[in-house]
Write a structure and sequence with these properties.
The chain is an alpha+beta fold and 636 residues long. Helix content is 15%, strand content 33%.
Length: 636
């Protein structure tokens, strides 16, 4: 067909209200094109390459409408139907934004069961990693139903649901996210090139991406250029998966865990085996095996028979997906199950990472009878792939964390589709580089605003929750500093932040309770973008004043007063004097202020609150119950 519209223009699309509506596509070069929507027409000529673009007048919320594109010379036309006009948001980031409602069960049960919202619609971009700026992306608009909603981003759906309920208009979400990704891959090349901290990284990338040497590494991976991933598997040829293997000389590891925490600081392939006795009445029945999450790929066997596998090639997106496999009745021939799982990780951590509470086996349909699988397992390393705990230096085709790769593939095809704003949940992958993140985050926001030609494009992000072992104070950390860098973006106009320090899980980088995360993002947008009379977020520290051996901290966004989530005195405050040594502080509330002091610090000059990777139990909140953002007053 000689007439094609840009990817988001499909049946059931949602268009942004109260803004001019860009419509673009491709056709025969130098051809007159007429676009009609809701009684409005716009006309243009396609350029010598066949590109065309028009802007239709703004429309109020409503619909359904049809959009017709016609070549006036030939009469050839294209029509898309059931278009609604309302609020359109881009949802982007890494795995916690990509985390689906289905993965959040049972906490998302109500959201899924009641997801009958024909005016809430999602368009999910394809995950592709091709070199060069891409014009199109695969995807289709899908309305929210109990059948479709389980596959929606949990955070984005809850966000959209609240906006829809409170604004009373259709809501469309362009969903574009990818697990384990840096902010740099979502930013355009032109913006990256203006950051002096990235100059060498970008130059090194461009010096090797298209070279013969780089592509030699990909010879075994096929024409897409993905670097080799799958070493040959002696574990299979040596029958490590069989029931009668003698694994008594294998080492022991307490699971769930990643193998790095057990002293193996490399990527590779590990086998895990465990024998478990089952009740006699389970023999000859289908069983349900819940291994928990396998980081990144696995092949799992029971009594020598393969019962499931997840992931292939360089797929890394399944590292947080619980493995739920059926053990066929024909495999359950005795009172012992020999479980063997081959786990393969080629980047970052690897292992069977739980959580412990879901690692179990039980008869199908009878979860109440489950036997736990957390505990000691036998293990053996099949392949040591070396210290690849950071992304491979071989970047380019097929590698999602290459500079501007996902901007080119998953953002560019959406520009300039009219939006109200973007929601963003990312930062985990940048935690080790937190010193650069404040600029990177602001650069991305301003980049997207320039790319869309919307200088006031709203941007609301999720501040990282607690993660890793709980500590009240941790001077050498990464996540507290990353949260601080995220907060810096609030200096930009029409930006907001959902504080979720209370929603983390020490042992899981993917806390499953995404419902309050989406609610808090929506509240930030309702307050800061839509001007609704609600507090946008929890308290934010504003000023610090020394007085009589104490420090007074004033806060914004308190909703009238400060409180604590548990009714106890404020905790997790630390103060320091000129010696820069921090000590636990006594804190008490004074309206919208907190006053902190410490006998060991007679003249405090600095204060920190919830300053740790996981300051579990930090309890400062506003009157609405929203938690205060962690902070420090110093810049030491």
């Amino acid at each position: 067909m000689s007439l094609q519209l840009a990817s988001p223009f499909q049946d059931h699309a949602v268009l942004q209200r109260d803004q001019p509506i860009p419509v673009w596509g491709w056709t025969t070069p130098r051809t007159r094109v007429c676009v009609t929507l809701a009684g409005n027409q716009a006309i243009c000529f396609s350029n010598p390459r066949g590109d065309f673009s028009v802007r239709l007048p703004a429309l109020p919320a409503g619909g359904p409408h049809s959009l017709k594109v016609e070549l006036t010379a030939t009469g050839e036309s294209l029509v898309i139907n059931d278009l609604l006009v309302g609020e359109v948001w881009l949802a982007s980031g890494q795995s916690n934004m990509n985390w689906t409602l289905e993965k959040s069960l049972p906490l998302s049960t109500e959201a899924i069961d009641t997801a009958d919202f024909p005016a809430i619609r999602f368009f999910e971009t394809a995950r592709t990693t091709n070199l060069g700026s891409q014009d199109t992306t695969e995807g289709r608009w899908v309305a929210a139903t109990p059948e479709s909603a389980p596959q929606f981003s949990a955070v984005a759906f809850i966000f959209a649901r609240r906006l829809h309920r409170e604004l009373g208009v259709p809501v469309g979400v362009l969903s574009s996210s990818w697990g384990g990704t840096f902010v740099q891959t979502w930013t355009s090349r032109s913006t990256l090139a203006h950051n002096p901290d990235l100059t060498k990284w970008l130059a090194d990338y461009e010096a090797q991406t298209w070279t013969v040497e780089r592509w030699k590494h990909a010879d075994d991976a096929g024409p897409d250029g993905v670097i080799p991933v799958g070493p040959k598997d002696p574990g299979i040829t040596q029958a490590w998966h069989t029931a009668d293997l003698d694994d008594s000389q294998w080492s022991a590891m307490t699971l769930p865990a990643n193998w790095q925490s057990a002293g193996h600081k490399h990527s590779g392939v590990f086998w895990f085996r465990r024998a478990i006795k089952i009740p006699a009445d389970w023999i000859g029945r289908d069983l349900q095996l819940n291994l928990g999450r396998a980081d990144k790929q696995d092949i799992t066997y029971v009594n020598g028979a393969e019962v499931g596998r997840t992931g292939k090639d360089r797929e890394e997106q399944y590292w947080s997906v619980p493995r739920e496999y059926t053990i066929p009745a024909a495999v359950v021939t005795g009172d012992t199950l020999i479980i063997a799982s081959r786990v393969y990780s080629f980047i970052y951590d690897g292992g069977l990472i739980g959580p412990a509470g879901i690692m179990s086996v039980h008869p199908s349909g009878n979860a109440d009878a489950a036997l736990p699988l957390a505990g000691d397992w036998r293990y053996r390393c099949e392949h040591d792939l070396g210290l690849v705990v950071q992304p491979t230096p071989i970047m380019g085709q097929g590698v999602s964390n290459s500079p501007h790769m996902l901007f080119d593939n998953m953002i560019q095809p959406l520009i300039p589709y009219a939006l109200r704003g973007a929601i963003w949940y990312q930062g985990e992958s940048n935690a080790d580089g937190h010193a650069l993140y404040a600029r990177l985050m602001c650069d991305l926001i301003e980049d997207w605003r320039r790319q869309w030609g919307q200088p006031n494009l709203a941007f609301h992000q999720v501040q990282l929750p607690g993660f890793k072992p709980a500590q009240a104070y941790q001077p050498d950390n990464t996540w507290a500093y990353l949260r601080e860098a995220q907060s810096a973006a609030l200096a930009l106009p029409n930006s907001g932040m959902a504080v979720i320090i209370d929603l983390g899980e020490a042992g899981d980088i993917h806390p499953i309770n995404k419902v309050p995360v989406g609610e808090r993002l929506a509240q930030s947008a309702l307050a800061r973008t839509y001007g609704r009379p609600v507090v946008p977020n929890g308290p934010l520290a504003a000023t610090f004043t020394a007085q009589d051996g104490s420090l007074r901290i004033t806060f914004n966004d308190t909703d009238g007063k400060l409180t604590t989530t548990d009714g106890a005195a404020p905790s997790h405050f630390y103060v320091a004097g000129e010696d820069r040594a921090f000590h636990p502080a006594v804190a008490h509330l004074d309206g919208t202020d907190v006053i902190v002091s410490c006998p060991a610090v007679p003249a405090p000059v600095a204060v920190r609150y919830a300053w740790a990777d996981n300051p579990e139990g930090c309890n400062l909140a506003g009157a609405s119950g929203l938690p205060a953002s962690p902070f420090r007053s110093d810049r030491w």
